[in-house]
Amino acid sequence: MVRYLYHNRLATDIAGLKMKTPVTTASGTFGFGLEFTDFLDLEKVGAVTVKGTTLAPRAGNKGQRVVETPSGMLNCVGLENPGSDYFLKETLPKLRKYKVPIVVNIDASSPEEYGELAAKLDVKGVDAVEINVSCPNIKDGGLVFGTNAKSMAQVVREVKKNTSKVVITKLSPNVTSITEMAKAAEDAGTDALSLINTLIGMKIDVHRQRPVLGNVTGGLSGPCIRPVAVRMCYEVAQAVRVPIIGMGGIMCAEDAVEFFLAGASAIAVGTANFVDPAIAETISLGILEYMDQHNIKKLQDMIGLALPERQ
Amino acid sequence: MTKYVEEARVIGQRVLNRATKQIDLIAPRIAAEAVPGQFVNVQVSRRTAPLLRRPLGIAWVDKQHGAISLIYRIIGDATKILADVCSGDVISVVGPLGHGFDCSAKHPLLVGGGTGLAPLLYLAESMEEEGIRPDVLMGGRTADDLFWKDEYVNLVERMGLTTDDGSLGTRGTVMAELPLMLQRLHYDCVYVCGPAPMMKAVSAAVTEAGIKCQVSLERYMACGLGACLSCSCQGVGKRIKVCQDGPVFWAGEVTEW
After folding, report:
1. Is A135 tagged catalytic?
2. Model confidence pLDDT, tens digit, residues B139-149
3. Across the interface, do B232 and A77 touch by the CB < 8 Å criterion?
4. For residue B94, how many other CB atoms are within 10 A of its CB?
5. B94 at interface of A, judged by CB pairs closer than 8 A
6. Taking CA A165 as the corner, what is the angle to CA A162 and CA A168, rounded to the nearest 5 degrees?
7. Which fold has domain A5-55+77-200+222-310?
8. Whole-structure pTM over 0.80, yes or no?
9. Which residues of B touch A223 (CB under 8 A)?
10. pLDDT in tens, A19-41
11. Which of A76, A135, A224, A233 is labelled catalytic?
12. ipTM of the complex
């Protein structure tokens, strides 16, 4: 591992997951990372969070899967992925050649299946699992667990029981109280939280007079959701002790800084990867520049600065 | 093949018909590697709206001067902004993306409609450079849609034209001309790019005639790199990504049009 990358000023720690920079990639927006090696050095990213993985392969949703919206986009990919066997056999060996922590986003249709998948991924080369209880685009998993505190806690306990890796729970914004969900995940033993997943939305084609997306509704992402994400991060940071990976519409270093000030220990870049495939590397350099301008020595010194107790 | 993000300087735009323009860009690294059938993902604005890049097929490459040309229809906010870009402006272009055509045909026919005729134009040019003049069959709604004939005229042997309203060439779709051309002219490969119904009908007829057929698919996509899976569809026994595994496929590999 390149020890002094970014002069060690950006180092961060998510429940034992040590990262050289707090800039990670959001699941589903960075493929398996290997698609981006022409544009950036994977080892200069904090962690690569790979595409949502299920026990068996999934074909995803039919029809149009993506549509642009004002300063954002809706997607209803529906967790298409080649399945856990393929990931372990074909993808992980290639990805392991890079010295970068690997986080696998997992999704299943029952707490037991989440446990089974976590156990299967409890192998060398995988550094953490991110529990996806917030995918809005499938009927038999994801959000079903992410909108009910009890079911979510059950999933978190099953995963914790079945893995030695760092467990991150990815929260959905499509709930009445995000702090209640965050606390439930913490009480169930999650090591860290990531937030937010996409907001459910839809677009109607006014000329054809019907929904644009094949799945009717989709997950809204991009800069249009950033204020919601920052607010939720700010609230959750005051409600829990576990570290937070903040995400939602981060397009540049200043956007990332908002999340640190709101209490996040790391951030993830999502939709921006589609616009600029080198952005995950660029943002780390931008954060350093911001720190120089504001006389901040280490990333840790600015985490939570905007929270009420620090004002 | 390496993909690049290039800050490309615009060297000109040209009006082709009421809703179609050609933009010429200096993008030397993309120009050096691009093959016919590949595309680029163009950022029309540095603002957050429109947010996503727009995928456009490469219509022409000047390797000597490091230039590429794209032909696009002005249909939405993003292409309206692109239409207003001026010479000297710099736009960000990612490419070259996807896999191109298998160019090994000795007696090829190109069949296209709309902006599908853009990647076929680059194909015709590169074939002509190799001393093979393809035939082309193009369809449009009206004569105005077939401005393409002037772009192709110096590159091809025979040109078939069809319009829905009969204002130019044969009345009807390309299917009004295709069967007779296939029967008489003994092609060894047909290359198709156009609206989905055209590609479906043409590839069925070509396959039935026992001739090899390549199609270039179009899908909504976000990244163009195989990461977002917006353009993924069902192939034969496996999932295929239009941006990465395509956009060019053998007709037999495609099950969803």
Report:
1. yes
2. 999 999 999 99
3. yes
4. 28
5. yes
6. 95
7. TIM Barrel (3.20.20)
8. yes
9. 48, 51
10. 999 999 999 999 999 999 999 99
11. A135
12. 0.93
